[in-house]
Amino acid sequence: MGSADQVEFGWFIPTTGDGPYIGIPPQREATQQYMTEVAQAAERAGYEFVLIPTGGDCLDAWVVGSWVAARTEKLKALVAMRPGLMSPVLAARMAATLDRVSEGRVLVNVVTGHYPADLQATGDPLSLSHDERYERTREFLHVVKGVWDPETPGGFDYKGRYYDIQGGQSRPPLVTAPYPPLYFGGSSVSGKKVAAELADVYLMWAEPLEWIGGQISEMEGYLDERSRETGEARRTLRYGLRAQLVVRETEEEAWKAAWNILSQADPALLSSREKLHSRTDATNQKRQMDLWNESRDNDYVIGPNLWSGLSAVRGGGAVAFVGTPDQVSDRLLEFVDAGVTSFILSGYPHLEEAEISGRLLMPVVKRKLAERAAAGAKTQTT
Questions:
Q1: What's the mean per-residue pLDDT of the chain?
Q2: For residue 264, what pLDDT is reported?
Q3: Which residues in the chain belong to E strands, given as ranges?
């Protein structure tokens, strides 16, 4: 069960542009002005951080993250390290620099894979080798943590299958102690084992509550297994959920708004995008498409206030929470009870949906979380 006083909420920066509809070209460009407006709206709404995506047509996450940090006051930027596309020492230095200039407002998203075509286009030699990419990620993170460690002033040495580092150092030193939290996604066995060893937050794309509970149970098993095998103390891992959001004052308005996002998409494009998603070797994307296929006869409803309708058009975490502030906040709390303490939400268009969720949802869910925390504290003192 997640702790109510540890729950965090993040929003999303649309670095490929966005608009009210998906399945057609973005109606708004990802200009510096628009991305700044989205980031500032998210900060006003009460979100603590923003996910800056990577891959495909996305603007570079590190450049955008620096821009966002410079134009907000408290908002943190969750930016991507991509093993295979950047060296671990360079990645560590980039993160340390952003950590320092933002005064500790950087989080790190470790992105191991994407569509094979995207990895091939960027020159990744392991573009078609799923499990090897995670082995490389394991080495990558050992190097990153090694050069971040202030106890290795003479430099960090590492020799593995993919990296040979002699005297590796990261300058400037980090502001965040002991290092910026590492967020990590990957639903395959190889991905989960790397997460159990090295991640701080294990990210999942939204699925039915029982599916998420199953993933968390599996991860807890890998944590136990690793502790037994190494003899080390059992690690603690936090769990995060990536989802879309459509919240309105009435349930009817919410579902109307949700279906409106797809209203301009060509049916032929829906079929084409489905085929594109099916070509990925990413386990989590396959799970998303399984949900979409299995829920066709139920208007893509996969659970209370949980909708898979966007999955055929939008890759990644496309499942949406749809409903009133009370309904959606209750659903979020159910995931907190299952163990989730980090939520990364987004909606179309991102500016208006940040403002709407900040007005309707965030006060309600934070009030309910505060009430839970107060009740828990009272129980401990009696």
A1: 91
A2: 94
A3: 8-12, 49-51, 76-81, 106-110, 156-159, 164-168, 182-185, 201-205, 238-247, 301-303, 306-307, 320-323, 340-346
Amino acid letter for position 381: T
Q: How far is CA 258 from the centre of its chain?
A: 21
| Residue type (1 letter), 316 | G
pLDDT of residue 4: 59
CA-derived radius of gyration, the chain: 20
Q: What does each C-alpha distance from 70 to 26, 77, 106, 175 come to in angstroms? A: 26, 11, 12, 16
Whether the CB-CB separation of 182 and 198 falls below 8 Å is answered with yes
Determine the 3-state secondary structure of 329 from DSSP.
helix
Distance CA 72, CA 276 (A): 36
Q: How far apart are CA 309 and CA 71, in angstroms?
A: 34
pLDDT single digits (tens) 348-378: 999 999 999 999 999 999 999 999 999 877 7
| Gap between the Cα atoms of 340 and 11, Å rounded | 16
Residue 167 tokens, joined = 């005297």
For residue 324, CA distances in Å to 49, 83, 247, 250 come to 23, 40, 5, 5
Report the predicted TM-score, pTM, of the whole model to 2 decimal places: 0.92
In sequence order, the β-bridge partners of residue 346 are 244
Cβ burial of 3 (10 Å; 0-12, 13-18, 19+) is middle
258 class by beta-carbon count within 10 Å (0-12 exposed, 13-18 middle, 19+ buried):
buried
Q: What is the pLDDT, as a whole number, of residue 94?
A: 97
For residues 247 and 294, the answer to whether their CB atoms sit within 8 Å is no
| Peptide bond just before 26 cis, omega within 30 deg | no
Tokens found for residue 236: 């603690």
The candidate with the shortest Cα–Cα distance to 316, out of 127, 131, 114, 65, is: 114
